[in-house]
Amino acid sequence: MNIRLHGLTTILSALVVFTAPTAVLAQDNLVTGEPITTVNSGTPGKGGEVTFTVTRDITNWNVTSALGNNAVVRTVTLPIVPSAFMVQPDFTLKMNTDLLESAELTSTDPQTVVYRIREDAVWSDGVPITGDDFIYFWKTQNRRDCPECLINASDGHDFIETLEQDETGKVVTATFSEPFVGWQGLFMFLYPAHLAEKHGDIAESYNNFLSNEVPTWSGGPYMVESFDPGQLVTLVPNPKWYGEKGPYLDKLKFRIITDSTQQLTALENGEVDVIYPQGATQDMVEQAAGLDYLGIDFQMNPAANWYFMGLNSKAGPMSDIALRKAVLTAIDAGDLKAKTADPYLRNWPHMGSVMFLPNQAGYADRRGARGYGTGDVEKAKGILSEAGYKLSGGSLLDPSGKPVSTLRLGFPPGYPAANDMARLITGYIAPLGLKTDLLTGPNATADYLLSGNFDLYLSYFSQQVFPAVKAGQIFLRDAGQNYFGFNDPKIEEIIGKAAAASSIEESAAILSEADELAMDYAALFPIYQLPTALIYKEAILNLRDNPNQLGPAYNTAEWGLAE
Question: Domain 82-212 - what CATH class?
Fold first, then answer.
């Protein structure tokens, strides 16, 4: 459910979880609003501009690549990159009827899906969107045709055994090697194969052309007019747009403001029209509530993104599972949430799983069941003592008698809550004789997380509609987001079975066992869901919070200004 908020009192009393009625309410006093999928609807006029704020520069334009897979690149490229299905604000998947006439599961043995592309669907140069584009993308993602492609995750494209098109190029048939429950989440982003082939082989075109060159092409309602690095991306209507609606705006701009504390100021000063900060803060909520006199509207929801702390089980002190379990036991999750979320998000739910959100089938508090997050320092010391660790002069000695090195605790910039969490966690584990070195910066993801130059790392993951698909991205040994060294054949076996289930419910029941084992591995500590905060000028119609990995830019063709 979505809430449109006006004034501080309403904001502090009105957050709700956005799906099932049985979900945990984020506030005691429930204020209902319009359905999240239709809030702020209207018929806009033609023309005008909207400037949307993003929080980091773009150094890689390929959102499906390991380095380009972030919220900013998704937001900026969604208006130009076509998708077969789109995740909706209510966390369901909907076929993109602008691109496809149909997408049907025509057989279950073997599983077969037939996509029918609209005849009028074309790239911005007039070349038809065809099965060539599906096949090119599949080859970049399936890990067989292009092992050198630096992808973020295969997302299930490796389940497709063959992908063929008919003589028209407009009918594409995918035959799967085994059942795959998440087939509707495939082909989420498509790239122009006819342009890619002009830039070398598959790996060269994927890793360089699509990643490093500013797109001059589009298959969506808008296309890039200009890019001023570190400052501004300007989009204009795609003259070959084939969709039913829009685009309505003359220009859609994305202003890069890396200092999140300056975003509201820019909105108040009229420099931007929309901000979507990476995690709302108490100060931000209070300030936004005071801007209603400027015609500022406000939407909040629990996001499909959830904060975590990962522990590097591959190398360094955290490679010892006893130390990992002690650290997770010493962290006081209740205090952590109380000091970083509760001041303005009372009753915000904990995360007790590393594979399910609290409102998804299969969820259980498996973190609490193991005593992780209890802040029980004495129990944590007992775990260490049993494993041969000793406290000496305020420092922790490992079983060989050597001091445990200072822990490198990294986190990305632009997340005020992560900064606060890092300092709080430092305090929670200090009684164990552990010290931390806090590491952040504009390139923290590449410098620390991707390079393995960390012991502890705070960030967030974006959950998917199909939990088994997301689990495959994190917990498989060669997964693109397995930053923390998960290496358990049993977990991999269960994820494979869950991905091959015939329904989400069956998949969740199977995956629950893998969730238990992953929690036992003690390399990933779930904290809580991020709150979204979409703050915008109320004259903008059809702009709505989409609290999942796609964000509000899922429907930019419909954005426009009230007449």
Answer: alpha beta
User: Which residues contact residue 127 at a Cβ distance below 8 angstroms, ignoring those fewer than 6 apart?
Assistant: 192, 194
Model pLDDT for residues 254-278, shown as the tens digit of each residue: 999 988 889 999 999 999 999 998 7
- What class is the 305-530 domain? alpha beta
3-state secondary structure of 51: strand
Q: What angle do CA 177, 179, 183 make, to 5 degrees?
A: 100
pLDDT at 282: 66
Range(s) for CATH 3.10.105.10 in the chain? 305-530
Short-list 116, 121, 98, 97, CA closest to 106: 116
Which tokens in the block code for residue 333?
């999750």
d(CA 284, CA 270): 17
Chain Cα centroid distance, residue 385: 38
Q: Which residues contact 21 (CB under 8 A, 6 or more apart)?
A: none
Which CATH class name applies to 3-60+217-303+531-561?
alpha beta
Amino acid at 139: K
Task: State which amino acid sits at residue 80.
Answer: I
Which pLDDT belongs to residue 13?
A: 28
Helix ranges (H only) for 320-450 are 321-330, 333-340, 366-369, 377-386, 416-429, 444
The answer, yes or no, to whether residue 415 has pLDDT greater than 80, is: no
Q: Residue 285: is its pLDDT beyond 80?
A: no
**Contacts with 401 (C-beta within 8 Å, 6 or more apart), sequence order:** 390
Dump pLDDT digits (tens) for 322-373.
999 999 999 999 999 999 887 767 677 889 999 999 989 999 999 999 999 9
CA torsion, ordered 500, 504, 509, 510, to nearest 10 deg: 10
Q: How far apart are CA 302 and CA 503, in angstroms?
A: 25
Strand-strand pairing, 296-311 and 524-537? antiparallel
Q: Return residue ranges of the chain for CATH 3.40.190.10.
A: 3-60+217-303+531-561
pLDDT surpassing 50 at residue 532: yes
pTM over 0.90: no
User: Where are the CATH 3.90.76.10 domain residues in the chain?
Assistant: 82-212
Q: What DSSP letter does each residue of 132-196 carry, written as one string?
A: HHHHHHHHHHSSSS-TTS-BS--TTGGGEEEEEE-TTS-EEEEEESS--TTGGGS--S---HHHH
Residue 4 makes CB contacts below 8 A (sequence gap 6+) with 33, 34, 39, 40, 297, 298, 299
